[in-house]
Amino acid sequence: MAQKERQDIIKKLEGLRGSRIITLVTGDRAVAPTAIADDCLRPLYDHLLSVAKDGNPKKIDLILYTRGGFVETPWKIVTKIRQFCQEFTVIIPYRAHSAGTMIAIGADTISMSPMSELGPIDPFLQIRPEGGKPVPFLIPDLGVEDVAAYISFLKERAGITDQAALTNNIKALAEHITPTLLGRVERIYSHIRVVARKLLALCKPPLAEATITTIIEALTEKMYAHGHGISIDEARSIGLRVEDMPKDVEKAVWNLYLDYENSLYLNANPDPYSYFPNDAANVYEEKGA
Questions:
Q1: CA–CA dist 29, 151 (Å, integer)
Q2: Got the DSSP string for 37-105?
Q3: Residues 235 and 118: beta-carbon distance below 8 Å
Q4: Do 168 and 213 have their domain in common?
Q5: Whether residue 207 is found in the same domain as residue 237
Q6: What DSSP designation does 136 have?
Q7: pLDDT digits (tens, 9 = 90+) for 127-183
Q8: Residue 274 in 3-state DSSP?
Q9: pLDDT digits (tens, 9 = 90+) for 34-56
């Protein structure tokens, strides 16, 4: 599909929605992943200036596809968009995981279809060992909630109540995770909850404080698997303000997503070894690119 045809779909959606639309799509290919990060802020600002050239629109819709990204960026995206409109909706054609979910909860409304997915917002630390040697017993993508889950396991599953025994087990953890890294875990643990609360507090009309607390607990610690897909019904059940896409909107949004999927090879083979099957293969050329 040519750019002109994509723009036609977006214009059609703007007519159906009575809004101005911006799209944000990141890739998830095994050999060329992209993520929500600060490098999107400059082009986003250009788009916002464009849609507001004749005055700020009443409504802005963000069509979002992403598998996640940096936890610092969603707040910046949401607050920038909100400075240019009175109403803000995130439209999810398929996946808006992790940092994408954080963007979505900062909207007044999340528009979802049966294919849409949100995800938990429990962050991971990327561990890059010095000298390239992996640290024994330490996985390279340490979930912040994994550390808290270890303590819960000791108390609730293993049934350890003796303070000395708990201290020894926590000491064993500290032998594999440095105090500095444990400090970072605690800071990110707190940061994600503070930012989630600030994002949810932007919703109009305001959400009840108890609802905000329930949403944060569900998204940070009660899904248990970072890859869990949160459907429209589950999103609604935890208190998120979700709307069903009307069928005509759903069809146009899906057609737009399929074009991005095709253009960005989002459906490409996820196995990196298929691109570089042996040590001698260090170049991969995309056929037809």
A1: 35
A2: -GGGHHHHHHHHHHHTTTS--SEEEEEEEBS-B-TTHHHHHHHHHHTT-SEEEEEESSEE-THHHHHHH
A3: yes
A4: no
A5: yes
A6: T
A7: 555 555 554 444 455 666 666 667 777 777 777 777 887 777 767 766 666 666 666
A8: helix
A9: 899 999 999 999 999 999 999 99
Q: Crossing angle, helix 144-152 and helix 209-221, to 10 degrees?
A: 90
Q: Show Cβ contacts of residue 238 under 8 Å, excluding neighbours closer than 6 positions.
A: 214, 215, 218, 219, 230
| Token duo for residue 118 | 């949100």
Q: Kind and range of the H or E element at 279?
A: none
Taking a C-beta distance cutoff of 8 angstroms, is the pair 147, 182 a contact?
Answer: yes
The verdict on 165 and 233 lying in the same domain is: no
Reduced to 3 states, what is the DSSP secondary structure of residue 255?
helix
CA distance 15 to 35: 30
Residue 218: partners with Cβ closer than 8 Å, 6 or more residues away: 238, 239
Residue 172 lies in a domain: yes
Q: What is the CATH number of the domain that holds 41?
A: 3.90.226.10
